[in-house]
Amino acid sequence: MTFNTLLSLTTEKIVWFVRVRAQAVWKGINRKTNEFKGFNIIFIDEQSCRIHAFMSEKLCDGFALDLKEGQLYSLSNFKVHKYKGDEINRCVRNEKHIYFDHQTKFEKILTDVHLMKEYAFDLFDLQDIPKFLNDNRFLIDVVGMCEKSVVTCLVSAEEPSKSRVKFKLYDGRNEAIVTFFNEFGQAFERALKEHSEEHVVIIVASAKVNKYEANQEIYLRNYPATRFYINPNHYSVSKIQKSMILGTEDKDEDATIFTVKEIKQLGKDYIQKSILCKVTVKKVDEQCNWFDNFHVKCENEVTIVDGRYRCGHCKRNLPYPDKRFRVCTICADETGVLPIIFPDDEIKRITGKDVYDLENENREAGDEKRFPPLLKEFQSKQYIITLSPSNENIEKESTVYIAKKLSDPLEMLGNHNPVEELSPDIEQISMNTEVDSTKNNMSYSSPPTVKSTNRTRGRKNKVSVKIELESNDVDRVSKLKKS
């Protein structure tokens, strides 16, 4: 059975069939009436594309019992809408979102669960957090190292049910303050105690950027969509552990993001040096061969001579060569255009398939000469790409670059102007939240929360909540520091 990708969804029809994982689930609650409006879901697919979905309360009786975080589903016959542009606190940077209706079919998938990643993120550098303070359209995903001994836990003396857990994240260059409130913070504290190591890497997904009025300190706080992941199996975790704990960061790779214009002006000092660029794939060239034949032993291309495969390097005839991806792309950023060839190992990692898999799909489709549709899905996506300029690139003898590494596809923010700065009289700590009764079956992540809305609305001043540390809480903090 063929599944549609989330990236291919359009608003023109409802006959779609996707295979997705529910990465996050939370209730939508009307803040004024406390009325339950339905369930919000973040779905991810095999290409690590994310999309927000909404299930209204009228449909919950038919679906809610089977709705669990981490579960795989087949989803079909649903509506796709575009955002209007005035929504706030969006958890996914996708211009479209999914709406369940009475025709929607929603079923668990219990097989092939290994084919899809457990989660996908749109990670921003910690240094980018202040940029989101005056732009309330989106929540933010970040990753950093946390030192458990400096985590502080404060409980309100007047209302013990109100509390906050405060800690810092580090990435080797910058730091960010994070504050989790009430039961969400308590759940984080409990999860932290389950890890014996002093330093852990934490991914905070869908966090809200706020500022304390008293000291103008910018910090991240939990929102209904917020989730935390402690030492998850994700490439960003190993990268931070490597650079901060082992101190063995790759010195040959410059962490600076170069623009296309800057890459074209690099000098001889950058020959064979790893550099990074952040570009969008504008075109996947379907006229070029999408794979090459290789002789495995000498790692050279194989050509056909007199009807036989022959290695031009060792001059041997081969019964059958190895086949490897070689996808030619046209990439660009705001400064220019760069032809880049995507390598075999990275294409296999991202797609989960090799050349033989795609050849077989073409045969089954009755068109062995077609350009594989799966490879076209690189188009219109944004990547952080590691390049290693050759002598020919630097000497301007060749304008084509060969990629060494590709990040997972980045969600594209698009071109937007930040909204007006938030009024300074808006209270920085909102404790008017409840805990979602929906259970989370992923042991490493945070519990669902509630009271979500993404409509622009007027804001009212709130009364500040005074938080003091009780004597019994001092003991609790001391125990956490020792753990």
TrEMBL record:
Residues 454-463 have a biased composition (Basic residues). Residues 277-399 form the Replication factor A C-terminal domain. InterPro entries: NA-bd_OB-fold, Rep_factor-A_C, RFA1B/D_OB_1st. It comes from the Eukaryota. It holds the Pfam family DUF223. Residues 3-107 form the Replication protein A 70 kDa DNA-binding subunit B/D first OB fold domain. Residues 435-467 are annotated as: Disordered. Residues 435-453 have a biased composition (Polar residues). PANTHER family: OS03G0429900 PROTEIN (PTHR47165). This is Replication factor A C-terminal domain-containing protein.
